[in-house]
Amino acid sequence: MMYVVIGMGVALLISAGVVKYEMNKNDEQLQVITAMKISDQMQKAAISQLQSDSEAIQNIDTGLAALATVLDNQELKLSNTLSKLEQAAVANPAAVELAINAASDKRNRCFALVTGAAKLKNETNSVCPQLMGRK
Q1: Which of 16, 36, 46, 131 has its CA 20 to 30 A from that of 71?
Q2: How far apart are CA 96 and CA 103, in angstroms?
């Protein structure tokens, strides 16, 4: 009988050890699963941020492409204007000099107005119409 009680005690201790081992194993697995869920959430947030950043970069790229087109058009326009000015200067240097001097006078008047000079009555200036009260 005593051997039976001792055997049952040993079996009970072994069972308790196995149960404790399984509980620890389950806790470790739960910690791993929790860590994986957190990692998954962080990865999803990172992916979402990357997608958002990618869209922003594409929008910026589109804007830059549009700006490049505008600048190319302005460069072409300025190049054409310079070419016409060169041709006119060769054909009639005095007239070009007068036109350049008149434009320079208008630009200088703009600088004077910006730095505090009083606007004259009925004054107009095609170089800086915004300073004359019109756009």
Answers
A1: 131
A2: 11
Residue 76 burial (10 A CB sphere; 0-12, 13-18, 19+): exposed
Write the DSSP symbol of residue 126. S
Amino acid at 56: A
State the DSSP string of 17-54. Answer: HHHHHHHHHHHHHHHHHHHHHHHHHHHHHHHHHHHHHH
Give the Cα separation of 28 and 32 in Å (integer).
6
Contact (CB, 8 A) for 127 and 107: yes
Take residue 9 and report the two structure tokens written for it.
């005690």
User: What is the per-residue pLDDT across 84-134, written as a single tens digit (0 to 9) for each?
Assistant: 888 988 999 998 889 889 999 999 998 998 898 888 888 888 888 887 775
